[in-house]
Fold each of these.
Amino acid sequence: MIKYFQSMKVRHESMKNEILNYTQNRELSWLKFNKRVLEEARDITVPLLERMKFVAIFTSNLDEFFMIRVGSLYDMAHTDAKAVDSRSGMTADEQLAKIYEVVAPLYKERDKTYADIKKQLHPYGVCGLDFKELEQIEKKYVKKYFKEQVLPVLSPQIVDANHPFPHLVNKEIYVTANLKLKDKSMMGIVPVPQYISDVLYLPGHDIRYIRMEKVIMEFLNLVFEKYTVSDANYICVTRNGDVSPDDEALEVTDDFRKLMQKTIHKRRKMSVVRLEVAEKLSEETQKYFCEKFDIRPCQIFRTKVPMKLSYIFTMSGNLPEPLKKSLAYPVFSPQNCARVQEGGMIKQIRKKDLLLFYPYESMNPFLKLVKEASVDPNVMTIKITIYRLAKKARLVEYLCAAAENGKEVTVLIELRARFDEQNNIDWSERLEEAGCRVLYGFEDYKVHSKICLITYRNRGEIQYITQIGTGNYNEKTAAMYTDLSLITANPEIGMDAVEFFKNMSISNLDGMYKHLIVAPVSLKQKVLALMDEEIAKGQDGRIIMKMNSLTDTDFIEKVSEASRAGVKIDLIVRGICCMLPGIPGYTDNLQIMSVVGRYLEHPRIFSFGTGNAQKIYIGSADMMTRNTEKRVEVACPILDADIKRQINHYLKVMLNDNIKARVLQSDGNYCKKEQKEPFIDSQEVFMDEAVRAVRKEPEVRKSGIKDKLRGLFQR
């Protein structure tokens, strides 16, 4: 028996080492994803203002990466220094060192990209300026504005024995300078007020503006009047944001909302993981900041790009229409789904399943369904899981109206949706006030599923309409993210949904379902079993999956097993991908691609087999260990033949994208596909198809596309 366990241990160690042959580090893979975002900012076929938005997206992505991923590694390095990443064999400290090494050139690449776009925007009258670039009349305007509107609300501080170094708020900007009074030297710090605009727009017809931190920096002599000011700079700290309510003691009597408020407050005071500076620091100042923030020089990054770029997204609204056409994407509004008929949604769904494809098609049919259910006398209950909502949400208003109309409304809202905690707390209070039953899920598992169940009576019989999606019920992101939303009256799926919500209400994760597959209990196991079915077919097997991220080692090992069995596998992975294709003997039959374009790719689709035997699921889960083992996720089979054809078409177009697609190479780098006719930008194709469907126009048959798409599933 001892020998048996020893041999099993040796086999397990061997498998652990073997997986290192075809995997890569999660964090470094994510940085490659963000590099693909930056490549869109450099793409000359993308309109200039859209390119600037990609710089802003790259920047906000990097901010969150440092707060969460670097923050997590920072904690690990201090608490479990010997722990090793199973996909790369690196310790936390080794990962951090590599991250800092990789990020430094990305800063330079971003600086160069930003400067190039900024220069090209100047002839259009869109000018981000330094104070010295202003015209004389503009300088007078800025000085007057500063004296009247900014100076009175500033809170400057010196740092000396009587004035300790202040707490710097995460991702807020502070203007700093060396101050001298007679023979005494000290530092001066001025927070850029959060309640004034980040940018000051100058009078005139052009879009000429100057950042507020530059305005304050220019007039520091007015802020610190009796001091000699030198070495003016502005800085921004990024703090560890990887804090969860599990870090706090939770008493049974505690209100979970209060606990989340404490968690949000705690995040503001976490360790500094990065310092950004606008100007080069002297050795003395660098040492000073390293001591104050307990960081190393490798954690200090100089940036020539504004530390806050959110103003870029509102700038296009200030542009005159002709200029907007030159600098931004042509306006596209989500279309009314051509398959939705006039009249009531409940009646239509009873006859035929419906699949909505955001943002090409509008979310309105689903919202119309909930609104209709809120007043329909036959509707008894509405139940829904919510992860992220927009700041303004018609969905909440309809749910509240339903409760006020006497329907039983149950809302399972996840208060731990990172960085949306406060928004969800606010909405939970609004829902409760209206009479909705609000649940918060499980202590150790986030509820990330996207499922809605409407129960109603029809001629004395209880019937169901179930909606299951790949994305959040967020009306804002539904116009920016690509997602699928299935609405079905299938009674067996409805019964599964009834069971699911019952289990959520009694904290039972071990539910049994006929059609739905639910993490953490059955989703991964079912996906692996479906892959085994394809493995049994050998070279006749076919697997296509689309997801946002791939890190789960059990899934990775099964993909390798399928590849070795001769199964043809295509994975469309937008972001993190810890698996490498084309590794001889391990992943020869695997192709992995990523699409980064105008919209954020977000659907999760799992397809097994071909023809009549093909099985397709859509759901909320990526193949990440956190999703498959530590979250409540739901995936649903596609049983309607027409909807199967729809999804197969989407997958085929995506796989043949040769404009926005990048293919992952065996060395971990991504390469764009060879651009040859037919040129296929999948997102452009889907926009065009949605518009034509509404207009009932015939499809434009671009030469070669049909031939190229035909037979792809038999590859």
Note: The longest strand covers residues 228-239.
Amino acid sequence: MNFKHLFGLTCAFGLAATSAFALPKATDLVADMGLGYNIGNTMEVPGNPTAWGNDFPTAEYVKAIKAAGFNTVRIPCAWDSHASNGTINAGWLDSVKTVVDLVIGEGMYAMLNSHWDNGWLEDHVFDGMGYDKTGEVNSSAATVAAKQESYWKQIATKFAAYDEHLIFASANEPGVNDPWFEGGTDGGQWGFDENRMKVLKSFHEACIKGVRAAGGNNATRTIIVQAPRTEIDKAPLLSSNMPTDPTGAGYIMAEVHYYPYQYSLMTADESWGTQYYYYYDMPSSTDKTHNMGWNVYSKSIDDQALGTPKQIAKAFGELKTMFCDKGIPVVIGEMGAVKRLDALTGANLKLHLEGRAAWYGEVAKVAKANGIIPCVWDTGDEGNGNFTIVRRQTKKFGGKVGDITDYETLNAMRKAYGMAAIEGNSIDALVNASLDESNKMLEVTYNTVTSDSSEVGTLRFNVSSKNWSNYTAISFQAKIDVEATGPVDDVTWMTLSLFAMSGDTWKWDDYNFDASELDGGWATYTVPLNEEGLNIENKAAVNAFGFNLYGTQLKGKIDFDNIRLIKADGSAVVLADFDKKFGGETEGIASATRVTSTAPAITNAIKPVVASASKMFVNVQQGFVNATFTATEAASASAKLINGLGQVIASQNFTTRKGSNTVQLKAAYRGPAMLVIKQGSQMQTQKVILK
């Protein structure tokens, strides 16, 4: 630990913020920053850092990152969702400080950014192109820049005495009104031009101004600014429009991200190109169309396609020329490629995983050679499509916090940085698991943690814009053994929901099962894909589907098997039978395990689940919720709105009449809630967003 580092920590824990010394320039930090690691899907989650499945970072986890060979930790962070009337909550600043101190306490560099956080920075801005991805343009760029400046002044004031081991980053992947639309000329988006770059430049300059005005060591603290969307191809726009720093030259870094799409993120083959499963230097001889660089038109390999060694060298060399050679270091704030655990098995899976590790090693090697700092992305998940190297979700995946989950990828990067390999093997277990073809089902266990607030367990399957237009229903086998454990009172409830997300906006549609529809034993449930069942807005582009179990004070399990899509003629295709792999992911109070199936053979006899009495139609207006439903008889009933804490925020007792009924509740509350209508032993529920 050097003197400056020790001084910075001492000041951080108690001394007043004063400009004790000029911090080193950005170029002086590069060699020591080494490899970088992201604590992703945590501090940037709007409102709640644990809402996406990761625990709050612990000392044990941060120590493991250091031990793995990383010396920089990027902390994606939300601010606007933790602010009221323009002031960041003091408790949230303390929480962020806890994570920063854990990182710096291990002698590492902490890069603290402003992440997406519901798009407050880059969406809804009427300057620039004058249009945004939601079509709801409602903020001027000047107003957004003022908020950006204010937030960063508050953040920088909190950390004013920290030394050079704390670095600020203005944004994440700023698009500035970047709508996706059919036929877009720029990767499906509007072209990012000089006018929009001026807006982004003003946001970066607002960050710099706020930090510099905060006093202490912020006068010379390194600040990172991002290229449009943080795309390498857009780096020239940043290079020619670098923000002005009142401190002068030498204290700014530039940031891009590196996800060569077909290799890193693409999950379905398209007419214009295929997914790349296998690294360029380790091609498959039996699956040539998924080798990196495969050209669907020429039926050959392009050695300069995105992700190939030549393309990496060219792109990183251009970054060096544009920035590094001018005294502006470059950070690859995020990089990575998904593990394709669902698409491949056996030898092909092994080849994919070994090649993927080699690709990470190549990126790290070329980055280091060009004086660029690479930071690997991590979400904490270990299922299909994951990037994780250091374990943190032990409740879901077992083991202990800090276990290495991908020795091969880690060692390839360590080798690029001259570090010895860490002994271990992660690939063989994944390959062996992929060969298990016995009859399996998915056992999903639910167990609430709190007793006074509602919780949700999610089982989700990503299907990447599949066309369900030719299907009339979705069916599945399930054995339901979940029960409420608390007293039967007004705020104890549970319901099962089948949902789907579709289209470019991932529109959410769901069907809520009435309690009377759910059988305790094995049953086959079939839900129409229409307005009487799961009414998907865009059946031609379904992105994901799954199940949510909502409730308070509950525990138990649901066994799922043979999830299928049904055609009008009764034929079916299997979405998931779990015989080979899970193929999905769980969140919240749900955890899943593949076990030997006990489901009976599928027959034509099905358990009907959709009846006119089981569907509720809800209309939400500002201050009101109107629910229309069908009752089988006249009887006493109650309607309640329950917020996320399990509190009844509105209620009404009434008497139904046989047939259609409508009830209205007033609610001076905004945000998610659950509408519950009870009639005798029957209960209907619907998730609503109150305005």
Note: The mean pLDDT is 86.
Amino acid sequence: MSSSLSYKRRGIISFFMLALLICGQCVMTGCHESKREPGEEQTEVQEGPTAPMFSTEIRSLPADKLNALGAKNALPTEYVYPGAYYIQSIDAKALRATEGGEDALTYFATTSLQLPDPKLLVNADMALYSKGMAPVQLLDAKTSSVLQENFPLDAEVVYIVCETPVDQKSVVEEIFKDVDASKVKEASFGSLTFTVNEDSLLLPLDESGQLLGKVEHCMGGVCCPTSNSILFMSGPSSAFEQFASELTGDQRGVAAQRIARIDMTNVAMAFQFDYDAEFPNVLQIRPPFPVTQDLHEAMSKNVEAFQFLVDISKTDSNLITLNVNTKTKEGVDAMRKAISGMIMQTLDSLETAQKKVPENADANGLSDLNLIIAMLKSVRFDPQDQTLTGVIQNSEERLGFFKKTFQTINDVRQNSEIESKYAALSGALAQINNAFKRYVSANKTYPHAICDANGAPLLSWRVALLPTFGGQFEELYKQFKLDEPWNSDTNIKLLDKMPAIYRSSADPALMNKTQFQVFTSPETPFGRYPDGLKLQNLEDPAATIAIACVSEENAIEWTKPEALTFNPEKPTATFGDRVLAVTFLDNLLNLPCDDSEELAKRLATFIYGVAPEDDAQEASPSNEAPADDAGNAVSSEEVPAEEKVDTEPVAEPVADAATVEESEGTQE
């Protein structure tokens, strides 16, 4: 099979599997996610962001709404985190009994549940994952003075019911094998006794990752509520106390109420989350489908919660059921139109790819493509009151596709080091992209190099972007001599102050260099408008690269204006072994890179922002999902404007796994 076909097939599979996998991937960020920045360091108590009610206190649905949800099922919701905004339920027993079920369980054990040993889920009866928030006191990392009261910090709970009694000692040893033994202790909360590792948690408070605060008494712990169950939890000590309260059933919050009333008869996996577009932490949980701009706007205005139900264990049930709970009856129709539009856009894209499949194409790859198209065409909607339900029916063929895909995905997950690297780089791209938006809002153009009176570049666009980060980086911007080149006696001294957001490698030789660059050759948008590119200058902003992560060989001093060109003869000379970039309308490109003519041609459409000559008579790239514009191997997941990310050594901001990795070497 040709390399281009290989990419196409993987892209097709990953594109549709986004519906399943995004729920698992996007809950992987732990209790140490980046939060809203409070501003510069200060000793006075600042008013922190106000979390939604469902994240900070227990509230109940009105009796009529609660009754409309139906009768309670057997899920032990007393082990859901109080006030959770996200809950995931897995019927491990049902999945294990099916061919390929262990592959599915292994996937979820290593992604959303992050278990120390996948066998804990593979051999279990069921699992519940929940995520909520606990208000904490945020302190200055150096002085311990209070920066914010009621700072919302994530707490996560994984509860597993096993077939046989749990050997807690071996589980504890596995979890804490790399932890200083002096920090491991027992701590009691209510009737539960956890084995925990307790320490202060450092948090980056601005998007550059430089200004640090801390939260005292953060824990990761494990306990056995019963002889055949095991509970993992992470979060501040206040979260442990809240979890161990006497609250049961419906008292655990709205998300718990909703999932407790799902008919679980034909559900192998259920994902329930409340949705609040105004609160950035909640936005880290992505809807279980690709999000277009129209759909994003409709969701922000109309959606109250999602339920995403999957059964890959029986053919006489629904394969996928999506319930969208809306704020009003009118919201149901708005969401039906928005989701239908997203499906139609996806179908147009896939059918275009179908027409381009070579005659000697791999039969299995073509079969997968035809199956996905058929499944999307089979979606049926049922609007009722304030709930929109969409359904895809099951079949042997569809079950086989999912089982095969889970096996493929687990093969893809083998290289965790590369996974982490590209997750980190994706997160940094998301944050720089957000800074681009703030710059455009303030200046009406995209950032560009700072030039002298004759138009000669002096300092990079990354320097021009500094004020959008605020705080100490606005002060850093003021230290530059804007009428001098990047390597002048004054400006060269500022190289060592590179914001962590621009750091793309742990290599000491690249500590002052960055791989995050924009294409500046005359054929590219930034090259055509060196004095200030505007959105209206772009023919197809959704399919035109704004920022790219180039190869380490192309890394450049972060203050130096780049002269980046694309090598169509050898794309790997530009990108390395992976294409990682974000478009002007937030689509993240994440695909393996090779030097094939087909990939080079497709990359050119993204880089130059115009269709290649061969495609002049075809549909505009804007009518295709980004997955197809680069060989069907691109995630079209939107990057929310308020996305916050973690800190890791490779590139300090780390993504929340927003994309589906599509090479055979990396995934997540």
Note: Residues 1-56, 611-668 have pLDDT under 50 and may be disordered.
Amino acid sequence: MIFFVTSAQNQSDIIKEEAAQAGCTDIKPFVGGVEFQADLKAAYTFCLTSRVSTRVLLGLYEEDGIESTDDLYAASVRIPWEDWINPQLSFSVTETVKHTDWLNNSHFAAIRLKDAIADRIRSVYDGERPSVDVENPDVTFHLHLDDGHICWYVDFSGKALYKRGYRTDVTDAVLSEYLAAAVIWRSDWRKALDDEPGKRPVLLDPFCGAGTIAIEAALIASDTAPGIVTPGRTFAFQKLPGYDKELFESIKADLVAKSKEGRKNDIKIYAWDISPKAIRIAKANAQAAGVADLISFGVQDFTDITADEVPAPRGYVITDPPYGVRMEADEPMRLLYQQMGEKFSSLFLGWHIAILCGDQQLLSYVDMKPDRTNTVNNGGIPCQLAHYYVFSAEEKAERTARAEARKAERLAQPLNDTAQMVYNRLKKNLDAIVPLMEKQGVTCYRIYDADMPEFNAAIDMYEKNWIVLSEYEAPEEIPEEDAARRLQDLVDATERATGIDRDKIFVKTRSRQSGKKQYMKFNDTGKYFIVHENGCKFLVNFSDYLDTGLFLDHRPIRAEICEMAKGKRFLNLFCYTGSATVEAAKGGALSTVSVDASSTYLDWAQQNMRLNGYTSMNHFFYRSDVLQFLYDTYDRFDLIFCDPPTFSNSKGRNSFDVQRDHVDLIKACMMHLDTDGTLIFSCNFRRFHLAPFLDEDYEIEDITPQTIGDDFQRDPRIHYCFLIRHKAVRSAIPRFKEKVTLKAVLKKKENKEEDDDQ
């Protein structure tokens, strides 16, 4: 007999192993399920022992060339349904339809099959036909139609094979039994079960909820088949012709004996939850499953545990903590994951950790690097199962010693001549720039900017702890091996000159950006670090994007925004990660509005605001094309910061070219600028030139030199910056004649106004 077993996403490999253990043969995994051959013994065994499958279907017939509902009916009515059903039984029909253009409604296929079955039985039984019962049928048939190929099945197991029957109650967010079993199967705990005969490794679920993971683990550890958990449980095959009751009862008896023997194992499973109600429900469910004596339950706030409360020196954590999809995601949720990471990394040394989460961003707050991940689906929510191993103190010391030895060996080697040249230049730069930055209180700054033509790169240092080395793409005429060698020399020299470990030097290659490439995501680590500037904190990401999330060359502009923002209505256009908005809030802005077309960057901006404690109702974020936002809104602002990209060509909106479109952009900004307000317009296009006729309509001051930090003096074209105001306040704006700060300019303006009054 041929069977098809349905499964959830990415679980076919588990079912394949379950089928082999049950004695099935010719096992073939497919997307969404597994096909195999089995006799009644193997089929009964599989239904009783499978922990992950959702439904077992027995194949009846198949046919090709189905091109219409009439073909479907004609083929179906020829099948001897009387072998499976009679007028005294009820039936229902389910369907799966794929790639079938001629069928607008997939359910209509089930209706045509239902008609064919009823007509066939009526013809055999002199006009009598079985009734249809969709809730509790005696027999269920299934139709699978895919691009003209049709398969007919009879339901062998029943629709809910995965339901064990032990749930007496549930909590707000419930993990299905089959997914809990799959999560356990994916973890290292399953692999360690047979390491020591008669002893099962310790398992802990610190967010147990209704107890599903702990209960499924207890069933696995005690070799208890899920099909025998509930006494008297029935399966669909027990109502089908050919049911062998004696064989079925014999298989069940063997499984019961195996479970009794398995309970002699040394099983240590712990289930914690902060909710007393959840623990009460979990205990009741475990009692119904017959494994309550194998699990130690406890009301426990995981974020408050101490080293003495860790249940064993080594073990396994498998857990499904809340992740804000079924429950509201907010700052406490992020804090929870941060605290989880801290507890795991500091208290669970030598433990294996498996965390199921439907929000990859939350997983990044755990602040541990997973060894591997699995993608699963939990009630329609795509989830990541992240696996970690926390090194013991001895293992950490050993790894550190090996790393230090490798580093010492590497640093003991002399640099080659070219790397030595770069090293000398970097040391010279560091000797000059570091004391200056320390005096200014700056912790993130540039230490090299293509100083040597043959090493065309920019090197930025963050907090004296990380390096971002951005190499500008070599011309095509440079051989690839030469370019790679130069880059290696640059990395060697940077490590030697800064003393920063190589694993904290992030290398990127910059090329001319156009269209969507400017926002391309390179990796998906979700790893963020906190850096400081002007008393503010910012999240940066060194590996996932071309830029880190903080434009270091704009540091002076952001500082001046902080000085200018007090009591102002502030608008940040092309806000990116909102660093200017944070500075405006710090400076006492009355309100802030941040606009960007990227939801990723807007989320990042809101995280930066929350990180600095700015969570009031006066801060607004809009995902929108900037020009469209300006044309569609009527609000006015006292201070506007506009820092457009050089070029943008995102899906769903017109392309933007800063040289071509800056006039329209500036005019749109000025429509929203209050009479005595200030627009700060900045851009990074190296060949940018402001349209000269704008000076006829507005008072414009080129303040670029004053906004280039000391660490960027080697590249005065890193950006351009202008103060733009309405003509009505022309006389109030002085012209820069020397390098001064914006704060000084405004102070001169105030002094001049006082003189005029006198």
Note: The longest strand covers residues 673-683.
